[in-house]
Amino acid sequence: MYTVNYLRKFIQNLFIKIGCSSTDASTIADVLIRAELRGIPSHGLLRIPDYIMLYESGRINPVPQINIVHETPSTAVVDGDRAFGMIAAKKSMQIAIEKAAVVGTGWVSTRNSNHFGIAGYYAMMALEHDMIGIAMTNANPLVAPTFSVSKLLGTNPVAVAIPAANQPPFVADFATTPIARGKLEIFSKKGLEVPFGYVQDKEGQPVNDPDILKKGGAMLTLGGDYEHGSHKGYCLSSVVDIFSAVLSGANFGPFVPPSVGYLPVLKNSPGLGTGHFFGAMRIDAFQPAENFKYYMDHWIGTFRNARPPDKHEKVLIPGDPERELERINSEKGIELLPAIEKEIRIIGEKYNVKLA
Amino acid sequence: MYTVNYLRKFIQNLFIKIGCSSTDASTIADVLIRAELRGIPSHGLLRIPDYIMLYESGRINPVPQINIVHETPSTAVVDGDRAFGMIAAKKSMQIAIEKAAVVGTGWVSTRNSNHFGIAGYYAMMALEHDMIGIAMTNANPLVAPTFSVSKLLGTNPVAVAIPAANQPPFVADFATTPIARGKLEIFSKKGLEVPFGYVQDKEGQPVNDPDILKKGGAMLTLGGDYEHGSHKGYCLSSVVDIFSAVLSGANFGPFVPPSVGYLPVLKNSPGLGTGHFFGAMRIDAFQPAENFKYYMDHWIGTFRNARPPDKHEKVLIPGDPERELERINSEKGIELLPAIEKEIRIIGEKYNVKLA
After folding, report:
1. Which three-class secondary structure state does DSSP give residue B130?
2. Is A325 on the interface with B (CB under 8 A)?
């Protein structure tokens, strides 16, 4: 068990050692720690070995010049200069927020970036400005669209953060697949089969094998099968891909580069790096912020008080479980799985940063 | 079988008789006919009796003064003055497009409106301006959020239209539930059970009864059950509700007024009418339009050519099936179900507009 500050400092020092500025190293630490605190360890310290390997192979630039390459009063395309995804994403979301402050909303499509961690982090940046925040990203192709055996889409998450008054904010952050990719690993490690509706085999047949991705299989879009609306999940995931990559000039669909260092990058890919899309909408561009937040409290209260089917369940507001975990873990500290602890200790030793 | 022009003229004349301007009557006809042509008869002429009944009961205003009540360069809140939904929606989308022309994007949240037909109609308005169009609406509460037996959400559809060059445009238009409400009726009329994952009974138990809504049951959000990500469908449907109604000051969640005349309106509802949300993004606010459309062709080609699981299926691009039906039906004409034909003939006679 580590304190939050100890791990934060460790990550900062490690990324400073590979050349990041102290500000950038602190941003990377902040996003990874936030994922751990919010109960999403699949996007936390687990990712450090991959990030470092991508840096070592020259695919990530620790000293990027992140620039706006095109803009209007409410939009921008940002080139991340092969930055760590968190650095390009945070800068892009800041630009969206600045534009919203001036003309009501700001929308930024980002290319030449990398894996950015949890989408919710960037959406939540808008909250303190009394804005609605939106963040999405494409990701390596693991998912087959409806009626296909080809893996053309990532788990392409969407996050939306909406401020309230006395209620905590509404924070939705979800993959456009029934489950995140990491869940398959968990089933596999426990020796369990997955429910039907998560994956298909290489012939497109429904299966319950959590290891099917290694055998030519694919994940499915939200909905699971056509009968249950997988084509709607396919629509949603496609919109994330197009907004993130076709608007920005990043790689789309099957061309998104791997977020792990041991897989090769495609030659002749049509764009630059991974793509993201960010939005910020000033609440008072629509109505007085106090008024909006009063009604958001009303909305949240209405849903929170809905009748559950039995005593063991209750209607959750998006963001409730993660916020509760964040509160608990901030006090308690962060427990790393032994395998992860070992991996990041070895990487730390390599760069002369000690993990106690 | 009727020709498109004959039915269009019939609808126009009927709505002129109840007091609509000739322009507004033509808009209403256009949206309803487009739904019929695109194979979505649940949002076509079937709706006319309900629309007329809502007008007769004083809930819809045929001569509305639709106004912007608040705005910034990239946003507006529009008050529909209890207009037919199509009239408020078309005007709102036009405002979004005008704002996008000036500052890159335009975003409009609309209150005091009514059922607006197919969301895709408004999203597609952006295409001829080389813009991406977005349209969404809340709707009467028929859907339970995850872990609830209370019906708090509508089928809350989202439409996104994206232009391409030589390929036809990408047009996604989907309810945030596994199926549209009308599908339940079809199963019921055929005497068939529905697959599990569409509906639950009044205790929240999964059932396969297409008539369960009449027995206190509810529809489920996209994903179907928690295990398959229904909480993600709940997130998405909630975002549609909040953008459409809390941003605009319309009624949200369980307070959305019924879109049929025979159900009473809630007293003490927190907002005004039904809410919608519209967005327009100029492509060249991100990059040269030709460049973007070239890559959209590449995106569409990549997905269209993906390997299907067998010869009987193929990967569809969102909008493909509707466009193909529109092509066929525009030539062939529109076939009305005898029950619908009878109902609208009776209404026509009442207002002295003859359906041959």
Report:
1. coil
2. no
Nearest residue in chain B measured CA to CA from A220: B228
Q: Which class is domain A1-63+332-356?
A: mainly alpha
Q: Is residue B42 within 8 angstroms of chain A, CB to CB? A: no
Domain B178-220 has CATH 3.30.60.50: yes
CB contact under 8 A, B270 and A179: no
User: Which tens digit of pLDDT belongs to each residue from A302-348?
Assistant: 999 999 988 778 899 999 999 999 999 999 999 999 999 999 999 99
Beta strands in chain A (DSSP E): 67-72, 75-79, 105-113, 131-137, 158-162, 170-174, 199-200, 206-207, 218-219, 274-282
Domain at B64-176+229-318, CATH from 3.30.1370.60, 3.40.50.410, 3.40.190.10, 3.60.20.10: 3.30.1370.60
Query: Which of 115-154 (B) contact A at CB < 8 A?
Result: 144-150, 152
What pLDDT shows up at residue B120? Answer: 98
- What residue segments make up the domains of chain B, in order of their start? 1-63+323-356, 64-176+229-318, 178-220
- B136 pLDDT above the threshold of 80: yes
Q: Domain A64-177+226-318: which topology?
A: Ribosomal Protein S8; Chain: A, domain 1 (3.30.1370)
Residue range B1-63+323-356 forms a domain whose CATH class is mainly alpha
pLDDT digits (tens, 9 = 90+) for B52-71: 999 999 999 999 999 999 99
Q: What is the pLDDT of residue B312?
A: 76
CB A122 within 8 A of CB A85: no
Interface contacts A/B by beta carbons within 8 Å: 265
Distance CA B109, CA A162 (A): 15
pLDDT category at A265 given cuts 50, 70, 90 is confident
Q: Which residue of A has its CA nearest to B294?
A: A246
Distance from CA of A356 to the nearest CA of B (A): 39
